[in-house]
Amino acid sequence: MPFQVLVTGGAGYIGSMLVPALLDAGHEVTVIDNFMYGQNSLAAACAHPRFNVVRGDVRDASRVAPLLKRADIVIPLAALVGAPLCQRDPVGAVTTNHDAVIDLFGRLSREQIVIMPTTNSAYGSGNADNSCDEKSELRPISLYAIEKVKVEKVLMARENSISLRLATVFGMSPRMRIDLLVNDFTYRAVTDRFVVLFEGHFKRNYIHVRDVARAFLHGISNVERMGGQIYNVGLSDANLSKRELCEAIRRHVPDFSILEAPVAKDPDQRNYVVSNAKIEATGFKPAHSLDFGIRELIKGYAMIRNTVYGNV
């Protein structure tokens, strides 16, 4: 059945893929976004009669509250995403990623549904064998991961809520981000023909941005049996080290050189093998492979030749 869906931050990297998918599924969609990157990523949606857009900051309750009253489902995407951006603006990170979301929860009725992206970066380095599932201990290090963990605890205390712990997202989007790992390494392969790796043995999981949109739609269709729970969302055949990721890219860009040097450290010390069995048991399976995404990105980077497509 169609719902009234409010997407905060809906013009961002994930939102600009999710909003058209929600409209195609028959839902009425309202987006509130501050358009901090000057993007017009939802331009194609403006012709749709079931689409509405509001320019505003999610920290402004006077803008958000009236929109919440009309929503059956809320998808809070508005955030300062990633450890580097949160480190650069810690006040904005706390007020946007935590305070505004907690305030939003407090304004909702028990009947309203929330489906929210959280992050598996909070797993840190996993357990002794680096494996993680939804019951694993969380070890958030960066401000970004810490605030996401805090919000998830509150989210799970309310009814009709689903937390989607997203793997590292990749793929082309109308509001592109080159700073995500697969996107970044593929961009370096296409433009520089080399990359300098640090912590090349560190493993993490990946998921295509189109499959993230599909996961939200899956949650909407299955909220009665998925509600009140946390789900990892990633490619089960893509728990890869940074070095293995680069080797996968090199299969598509043969002259890509991979150098390793201890030049930096991951701010979240992400080194884990993630199980996605729980969401797969509900019937969800990703439809887009890592190789699909790399091929897509190579084509996309024939168009994109600057560094404005990132969060930092």
| Shape designation | globular
- Please count the helical segments: 11
Helix content: 25-40%
CATH topology of the domain at 4-168 and 207-233: Rossmann fold
The neighbouring-strand order within the major sheet is 3-2-1-4-5-7-11
* Number of DSSP E strands: 14
The average pLDDT is 94
Largest sheet features: 7 strands, parallel
- Alpha-carbon distance between the two ends: 39 Å
**H/E series:** EHEEHEHHEEHEEHEEHHEEHEEHH
Write down the Rg: 19 Å
Q: Tell me the β content.
A: 15-25%
Helix-and-strand structural type: alpha/beta
For the record, the CATH class of the domain at 4-168 and 207-233 is Alpha Beta
Topology overview:
Elements: E1 4-8, H1 15-24, E2 28-33, E3 51-55, H2 61-69, E4 73-76, H3 83-88, H4 90-106, E5 113-119, E6 131-132, H5 143-155, E7 161-166, E8 168-170, H6 181-191, E9 194-197, E10 203-208, H7 209-221, H8 223-226, E11 229-233, E12 239-241, H9 242-250, E13 257-260, E14 273-274, H10 277-280, H11 290-300
Parallel strand pairs: 1-2, 1-4, 2-3, 4-5, 5-7, 6-14, 7-11, 8-10, 9-13
Antiparallel strand pairs: 10-12
Question: How would you characterize the overall build of this protein?
Answer:
This protein is an alpha/beta fold. It is built from 11 helices and 14 strands. Helix 4 (90-106) packs parallel to helix 5 and helix 6 (181-191) crosses helix 9 (242-250). The protein is globular. The N and C termini lie far apart (39 Å). The model has no long low-confidence stretch (mean pLDDT 94).
